[in-house]
Amino acid sequence: MQHQENRNRETPPKPERYVIKSIAVGIDCSPHSMASLKAAAELAARMNAELIGIFVEDINLLRIADLPFSQEIRLYSAQPESMSTAELERLLRMQARQAETSLQHEAEIFRVHHTFNVRRGIVPREVIAAALEADLLVLGRSGRSPTCRKGLGSTARSALSGSTKNVMLMRTGFSAEHEAILVLFDGSEGSKAALRIALSLVRSGNTLHILILPQTENEKATLEKELSKLIPSGILRVEYHMLPSVTDSRIIARYIRMADSGLLVLSDHMNLPQETVHSLINEVDYPVLLVRNQSS
């Protein structure tokens, strides 16, 4: 792994700005969801974008409650109790109000225009459908389900495989204001789009890490030269990390952990297979921005 600081050189053309007019965020009141909401509100303020909150009443839970043998076990009771559809409806309404209150709170802090959207259906499908008109969809890496303690939750996985939107997957303990950014670059159009977005998001004083992924040994010099034309001279804190020619997501994940950056920005339209990119996102426990829409 090599490190270089951005030094004086020929001034490259100013990069295209990543324009966002609306940001959709899925809210289920889980810790990762609350981190997503805060990050989405912060980005909305920075880019003067509308913030769209989405809460989905899970139709599968309501269907289960309708079954005659459905029961729930509560912490304060040793005996299972019948699951009431009416009680579940009440709890979902309470969660929706909590989600809307959280959205209003963050919107007031960051002074952004916001709307709140309650839908009913299968959660991943409804979240993706509600975000169709947004420029960016922000989700938690995992949700409320106990099965999602490791890796990605079902909604995040569905957004990777079933959406064409730029998707940001957040986790707790991250602040876009203070963290460095790491972008994967292999010279492809997808990685160039990821780099443009990373340049738009990096804050003054924060470090931009660029993880260079050559396909061959001979390509290293070519990629370095190309990057020298794409990185503005005003970006003072840039670190370049040159990888060997690898396509194994586990090895790339190891280098990402070594860089120990904040937000990871990459595309699934790179020279890497799309399956490798998605496996990489699942493996690294970092917030991720996956770039699909290169015209943004």
Write up what this structure looks like.
37% of the residues are buried. β9 (208-212), α7 and β10 form a beta-alpha-beta unit. 39% of the residues lie in helices and 20% in strands. α1 (31-47) packs parallel to α3 (85-110), α4 packs across α5 and α8 (249-259) packs across α9. The protein folds into two domains: 22-170, HUPs (Rossmann fold, 3-Layer(aba) Sandwich), CATH 3.40.50; 181-291, HUPs (Rossmann fold, 3-Layer(aba) Sandwich), CATH 3.40.50.620. The chain has a ten-stranded mixed sheet, sandwiched between helices. The chain is of the alpha/beta class. It contains nine helices and twelve strands. The longest helix has 26 residues, at 85-110.
Q: Strand tally, please?
A: 12
Order of helices and strands: EHEHEEHEHEHEEHEHEHEHE
- Beta-strand content bin: 15-25%
Task: Tell me the radius of gyration.
Answer: 21 Å
Strand order of the largest sheet: 5-2-1-6-7-12-11-8-9-10
Number of helices: 9
Biggest pleated-sheet summary: 10 strands, mixed
Oligomer: single chain
The average pLDDT is 83
CATH homologous superfamily designation of the largest domain: HUPs
Q: Tell me the span between the first and last alpha carbons.
A: 31 Å
Can you tell me the overall shape? globular
Total of domains: 2
Helix-strand makeup class? alpha/beta
CATH architecture of the largest domain: 3-Layer(aba) Sandwich
User: Roughly what percent helix?
Assistant: 25-40%
Low-confidence stretches: 6-10, 69-80
In CATH, the topology of the largest domain is named: Rossmann fold
CATH class group of the largest domain: Alpha Beta
